[in-house]
Amino acid sequence: MKGNRIISATLFLLAVWLPASTVIAQGENEPAPGALERWRQMGPQEKQELRERYERWKSLPPGEKTDLQKRFETWRKLPPDEKATIRNNFQRWQNLPPQQRERLRERWEQWRKLPPERRDALKQRFEKLRELSPEQRRELREKFRERENRSPEEKRAFRERLREKFQRRQKAED
Fold first, then answer.
1. What's the CA gap between 8 and 13, in Å, rounded?
2. Are 75 and 13 in contact (CB under 8 A)?
3. CA–CA distance from 39 to each of 27, 31, 153 (Å)?
């Protein structure tokens, strides 16, 4: 999912890169225009946080710095509406309870491990679901809930019927 990679990069950029970007963009000895005034307006805690972020930036391996600079350029080229979406997603992520964040992180890892064909198939199914009317989606949710309430034997029989149906379709296509 390209969007999640952008979100991950954005999270890191927001935390590390952006505060130090004016210093880096201008060179270490040349402050960006207005940077001195912004520095003077910062409180002691903000200044310390900026120093720490800059030190983290300096300690990154050159390859990571290059990667972050590329991502930053990608970020700068994004349209404002995409940036706003990413910022909103970041804020939603920040507001999630730790358990939910971990669950999403695990699901993201599972997604990344899927073969590209499987991911494409799932994307297509998701797009089909998005095209359904609210009523159709509601009906699907109800059917899903009904299936979830079935006994293990009923679920097994249902899966077997689906498998047979799928195999018949495959034979018909061949």
1. 9
2. yes
3. 16, 10, 67
What does DSSP assign to residue 149? T
CA nearest to 119, candidates 3, 12, 7, 10? 3
For residues 60 and 16, give the distance between their C-alpha atoms in angstroms, rounded to a whole number: 11
User: Count H helices, E strands: the chain?
Assistant: 10, 0
Domains in the chain: boundaries: 1-95, 132-174
Query: CA-to-CA distance for 14 and 21, rounded, in angstroms?
Result: 10
* Three-state helix/strand/coil letters over 111-148: HHHCCHHHHHHHHHHHHHHHHCCHHHHHHHHHHHHHHH
Per-residue pLDDT of the chain (174 residues; tens, 9 = 90+): 445 555 555 555 555 444 444 444 444 556 677 888 888 899 999 999 999 998 998 899 999 999 999 998 999 999 999 999 999 999 999 999 999 999 999 999 999 999 999 999 999 988 998 898 999 989 988 988 887 888 888 888 888 888 888 888 888 877
Query: Residue 19 in contact with residue 50, Cβ under 8 Å?
Result: yes
User: pTM for this one?
Assistant: 0.47
Nearest Cα neighbor of 129 from 114, 115, 144, 116 is: 144
